[in-house]
Amino acid sequence: MTTETVTAASLASQAAEAIREFNHRTFPDPRQTPELLYPSTVGDAVASLKVLAQRLPQAIAQTSDALATQVNNGHVGAAYGDADTHAADVLHRLITAQTVASLLAKTLDSAHNSLSPLTYSGPDDEPDEEPCGEGMCQCYCVGTLHPCGCDCPHDDDCDCDFCDTRDQY
User: Fold this and answer.
1) pLDDT (tens digit, 0 to 9) for every residue of the chain, 169 residues total?
2) Alpha-carbon distance 153 to 38, whole Å?
3) Residue boundaries of the structural domains of the chain
4) Which of 28, 31, 40, 152 counts the most CB atoms within 10 A of its CB?
């Protein structure tokens, strides 16, 4: 049996894959049932995206710290140019990414708070009870469906609780 080693890089890759799947599931394709049908489900999604964004600054900072440590220990080279110059550029961009991620988290937090008063006011997705004769009713015999308007056609051998009670009188 082989055991796959989970690394920080593989976890970041899994997070990216999860967002890709989220994007596919929420793409407005008329052939699929939308997954974000209500303000509450949008709220759930925004709340989760907010938490993701809130965790990004720390992840970016720790990634930046790892590179800085490698540079400080003299363990970074460059395929071309000066390694320190390239590393400084990367570290500067990671600081910028950390700042932008913090802003993203704050913005998603505001969006999540703004969602709180919203409610669904579209058509009811629950089927209305159909008047007698137009659908199926649940008769006294548990699990037995009969057309609406029926008198619950129990057989003479029916031993359901309703029939047992009815036969007693």
Assistant:
1) 667 789 999 999 999 999 999 998 898 777 877 888 899 999 999 999 999 999 999 999 999 999 999 999 999 999 999 999 999 999 999 999 999 999 999 999 999 999 999 999 988 765 454 444 444 445 545 444 544 445 555 555 666 655 555 544 4
2) 41
3) 8-115, 136-167
4) 152
Q: How far out from the chain centre does Cα 49 lie?
A: 9
Q: Give the tokens for residue 30.
A: 């008329």
Among 150, 153, 156, 129, which residue's Cα sits nearest to residue 141? Answer: 153
Tokens of 40: 């509450």
Q: pTM for the whole thing?
A: 0.68
Bridge partners of residue 136, in order along the sequence? 147
| Interatomic CA distance for residues 49 and 39, integer angstroms | 15
Q: What are phi and psi of 138, to 5 degrees?
A: -100, 110
How does DSSP classify residue 26? Answer: H
Q: Which residue has the tokens 């209500």?
A: 38
